[in-house]
Amino acid sequence: MASLKSHKLLVAAIDFGTTFSSWAYSFKHDYDKEPTQIIVKEWNSGIGISSKAPTTALIRPDGKTLHAFGYDAEDKYASLAQNNEHKDWYYFRRFKMALFKDMTLSRQTQIEDESGKKMLAMKVISLVILYLKDDLQKELASKITSAFSFEEEIQWVLTTPAIWNDKARSFMREAAIEAGIRNDQLLIALEPEAASVYCRHIPLETKSSDGRTSIVPLCPGTRYIVVDAGGGTVDITIHEVMEDGNLKEIHKATGGAWGGQEVDEAFKQFLINIFGNPVLQKFKLDAIDDYNGLFRDFEVKKRKSSPDGTAHLAFTLPVALLEIFQSETEETLTDVINQTPFAANIKVLKGNKLGLDSSLVRSFYYPSVRSVLEHLQVFYDNYETYGISVAILVGGFSESPILSCAIKDNFSSWKVLVPQDAGLVVLKGAVLYGHDQSTIVTG
Ligand SMILES: Nc1ncnc2c1ncn2[C@@H]1O[C@H](COP(=O)(O)OP(=O)(O)OP(=O)(O)O)[C@@H](O)[C@H]1O
Ligand SMILES: [Mg+2]
């Protein structure tokens, strides 16, 4: 196969995810020495540094310019809301899935922001890509001191889910072009392919020789299933390692909308069961800052849940939520909880805290975990057809031991591997793919 190596000075990738997004890059001269030497954006989350930021966009009332992205967008919108100045602003969260669900997707497709205001999907997405592109270029400008223009020297890569149709993929390409990325400098990488490319570069398998354990890459002939479990979708593909180290696609990507945000959705449903939808809606409308805070707290806490943990997870209930609840009902919170199906699994604790049994938090995972297991079962049951011996779990949701242990327990003859920083594998793999597109051989 002809070499598909990039001759550009550097490769920059944008992973535009359902829940989280980020950018990363690497220079060609670094790639040639050590491919995994990739620089990833560091976002300030307010409580620490994180490699991804929430896919949240705050667009000014002019409907044309983006004011902030990520954690900054969430914080700025909350402060606007506090002063009741937010009504004319556009606030978009987790909007990527709208493209997946819309079969009539076109340049005219509109999406709704959190308060129901409409805007062209193309506008929102191109503004986000523009932001990420400019942010990356600003960092590069501070690193590259020579006078030459490096913009032409960038190979851009944008990731899309493999289960998206051609329409959705070309929609993303158009949005990137609108954001100022030249068509001939742009590659669209399929998320599980990018993940697979990255996994070719990192040691994965452990082998015992002479009583010692060494780590070796997957050997030729190995067929493995890549499970990219993100926030929105779980994408599944099967690849085989060839003699020359390249990859052959054995089965086209399949999957569905069973990502980590289903867990958040289950938590929201749980809150609705206790407080009722009108109270939760009013809470969101009146105190968006506290509303976001509750879900950010859940994001942190849910990552602590394990398949066999027994500890309670305590959530501080925002005062605003309790006040709205009390203005709507005569009953106490304990009375209301006692009427729900999970009364035995919740405790009202001192200091406006709710203690949730770990088994209850685990139950929030079950719908999405069940869907993933059902989907994988077919590939597991048909060894003669697929010949899979290894499963590589990537994507942020794979970092959950509840998901990875369920896969290990149910498919015990597979060797299940979860690379370090599983949530960054797609992004880093997209950079590697930009340097050398020949790694995946289709068919
Ligand atoms: N340790 C963890 N335990 C449980 N869930 C986790 C953990 N780490 C990340 N997640 C979840 O993984 C999801 C984010 O994964 P990722 O960043 O790969 O998704 P994404 O790229 O935004 O989505 P997609 O690829 O579907 O567009 C979120 O739902 C997040 O809550
Ligand atoms: Mg992703």
TrEMBL record:
Keywords: ATP-binding, Nucleotide-binding. GO terms for molecular function: ATP binding. Transmembrane segments: none annotated. It comes from the Eukaryota. SUPFAM superfamilies: Actin-like ATPase domain. Belongs to the heat shock protein 70 family. This is Heat shock 70 kDa protein 12A. It comes from Sinanodonta woodiana (Chinese pond mussel).
